[in-house]
Q: What sequence folds into this?
């Protein structure tokens, strides 16, 4: 039986930053959409991280992680930095508000509603990802607002699913469903936009072309990676 990949869109989830520190003392962090409370006494959280992420290796080594619940007002440059770039290449925390816990773990507070510090109790290998289950040692409300959902990220912000995400389904991205390639004649109801071929980020306007110094706020590529579309 063939799996209908669109069915997975009905599963609700949010967007979170998982952070840790590796064996060399490097601060690591990435975006995930799989973070669940699985027990109340003691309070325990479960997170799924792609094995290829530097953050997964850091959590495996340190046996600890911090989780930051992102706000609906989260900027695309934050999602782009933590979702489409590697902690092995850049310091993801340098441009965003954060603190360092007593345990040495980085804790993102930028565009964050709440944070959790977790001690890993067990790890499960599930193929492309590692599932970490741990006990919450500290939790704090750091902001007010509405948590961002994965659906909001796709349908309102028109974000794309990174290939390393647990929810990635090849060839099935909601962002593409709402956008058509540019044609010679646009209807009066359609708007010109530019879509990043690397990460799917879409920006409206600029009918005469993006500025020469334009950089994608999500993945950092230049304007040559953008294609003109109608929305």
A:
């Amino acid at each position: 039986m063939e799996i209908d990949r669109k069915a997975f869109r009905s599963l609700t989830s949010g967007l979170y930053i998982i952070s840790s520190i590796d064996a060399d003392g490097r601060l690591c962090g990435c975006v995930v959409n799989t973070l669940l409370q699985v027990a109340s006494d003691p309070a325990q959280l479960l997170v799924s991280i792609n094995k290829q992420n530097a953050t997964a290796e850091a959590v495996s080594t340190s046996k600890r992680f911090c989780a930051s619940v992102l706000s609906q007002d989260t900027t695309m440059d934050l999602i782009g930095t933590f979702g489409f770039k590697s902690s092995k290449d850049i310091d993801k925390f340098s441009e965003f508000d954060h603190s360092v816990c007593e345990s040495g773990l980085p804790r993102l507070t930028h565009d964050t509603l709440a944070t959790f510090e977790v001690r890993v109790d067990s790890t499960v290998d599930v193929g492309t990802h590692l599932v970490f289950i741990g006990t919450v040692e500290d939790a704090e409300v750091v902001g007010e607002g509405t948590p961002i959902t994965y659906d909001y990220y796709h349908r309102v912000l028109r974000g794309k699913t990174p290939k390393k995400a647990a929810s990635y389904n090849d060839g099935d991205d909601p962002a593409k469903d709402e956008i058509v390639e540019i044609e010679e004649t646009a209807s009066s109801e359609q708007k010109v936009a530019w879509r990043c071929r690397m990460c799917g980020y879409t920006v409206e306007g600029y009918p005469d072309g993006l500025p020469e110094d334009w950089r994608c706020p999500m993945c950092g590529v230049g304007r040559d990676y953008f294609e003109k579309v109608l929305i």
